[in-house]
Amino acid sequence: MSLPPLRASEHLHEVRYEIRGALARRAEQLEREGHEIVKLNIGNPGAFGFRMPESMRVAMVANLHQADPYTHQKGIFQAREAVVMQQQNRGVMDVTAEDVFIGNGVSELIMLAMRALLNPGDEVLVPSPDYPLWTASAVIHGAKAVHYPCRPERGFVPDPAEVERLVTGRTRAVVMINPNNPTGAVYPTEVVEAFAQIAARHRLVLCADEIYDEMLYDDAAFVPAAAIAAGVQAAGAPAALCLTFGGLSKVYRACGLRVGWLVFSGERQHARDYIDAVELLASLRLCSNVPGQYAVQTALGGHQSIFDLTKPGGRLHATRAAVLAAVSRSRWLSVVPPRGAMYAFVRVHTERLPSGDFDDQRFALDLLERRHVLVAPGSSFNVPYRDHFRVTLLPDPKQMEDVFGRIESLLDEYAMR
Questions:
Q1: Where do you find CATH 3.90.1150.10 in the chain?
Q2: Which of 219, 353, 377, 382 is most buried, with most CB under 10 Å away?
Q3: Over 70: is that where the pLDDT of 407 sits?
Q4: Record: fold of 10-50+307-415
């Protein structure tokens, strides 16, 4: 007797995560067949030889003897207090360890924060392009992700006026990813301030995804949303409730530790029920990874080694330069130079191809099958156009030059069709 199909939950029907989707599964198949694949689809520093600072390893080893039990659902005090110190150094003076949650990476904390906030039919303003977990975190809970445009001609920096026009009576939160994944945009002070004002005027939760906060190039300057939001008063209204998300995965090259943090700041008295709900959800999963929490205090104090990687002469800076040089030589490509994070969001000038028939998903599959390079198609990041792709800046410059040579040769083949 055959069984009826076992269908997945309807909540997942609009959830996409192509970064680890069908293309990544095909890459695994090709690897099993003996092919070497250059995986540029995901920001995974350890896979390209980056290491977390040794002092973080020492801190974890020194505390392994007390890492066996569950911790408090919000995390160990030392880690939360270190996050408080970081926030205070950035001008956010109204937070204590009670306002900090440690989670299994920022991904888990985004899901907890949205699950505690959203009801079916609610709306969340999310950038386009976005990191697709933000869209997923809305729709998986029955809400709607309303995408505000971050246009290439503006350097992928959003226009706050366009954002505010999308606010409705169902809007509950506005998301800002700064420095941005996938584009590398870094928002100027006036844009961050405008977002804080919008959140305050419309009583929205301001969600600031700042996981790449110190990964900056050239003269780019990071502006923490919480510091701006704390000083914003909209027509006498209290400052917005601000949720700041950060972690060890990117700046500290420690993805596998799965350690992130969520900080509540700004006006909180009216949000006690919501914050208690986040704590309830944190309690249901008992606690986050304990050994990794002991690396937080060490990570946030002392020398910040990421600056050695992003300044001229550093590896990330050099690979970024290699991407910009390769694109400038290309007949087919252009890119808005990333000012932060670890990605480049590259455009294919489809109008230069004879047929003009170009699809980013098909291109990514061809690149994987025929050139053994895995990239993330631009449409994976919830944009209405299909002429971009994202690469990570983690390979060394020589390997990146080779990758863009393969991309160019494939586009040359397209031109000869």
A1: 10-50+307-415
A2: 377
A3: yes
A4: Aspartate Aminotransferase, domain 1 (3.90.1150)
Three-class secondary structure of residue 72 per DSSP: coil
CB 411: neighbour CB atoms within 10 A? 22
Diameter of the chain measured on Cα atoms: 68
- Give the model's pLDDT for residue 236: 67
**Strands of the 333-335 sheet, one edge to the other:** 333-335, 343-348, 388-392, 376-377
Prediction pTM value: 0.94
- Per residue in 293-315, pLDDT (tens digit) is 999 999 999 889 999 999 999 99
Split at pLDDT 50, 70, 90, the class of 102 is very high
13: confidence class by pLDDT, cuts 50, 70, 90: confident
Percent composition of the chain: helix, strand, coil (DSSP 3-state, to 5) = 45, 15, 40
CA nearest neighbour of 406 among 43, 48, 24, 38: 38
Q: How far is CA 40 from CA 91, 313, 324, 372, in A?
A: 36, 22, 16, 11
Instruction: Report residue 373 as tokens.
Output: 């390079």
**What is the second-level CATH architecture of the domain 54-300?**
3-Layer(aba) Sandwich (3.40)
CB 73 within 8 A of CB 283: yes
The tokens for 22 are 């069908």
- CA R_g for the chain: 22
> Where do you find CATH 3.40.640.10 in the chain?
54-300
Residue where the block lists tokens 């974890």: 60
Using CA atoms, how far residue 152 sits from 158, 159, 336, 378, in Å, is: 10, 12, 7, 12
Residue reference for tokens 């000869």: 416
d(CA 211, CA 246): 4
DSSP for 377-399?
EGGGGS-S--SEEEEES-S-HHH
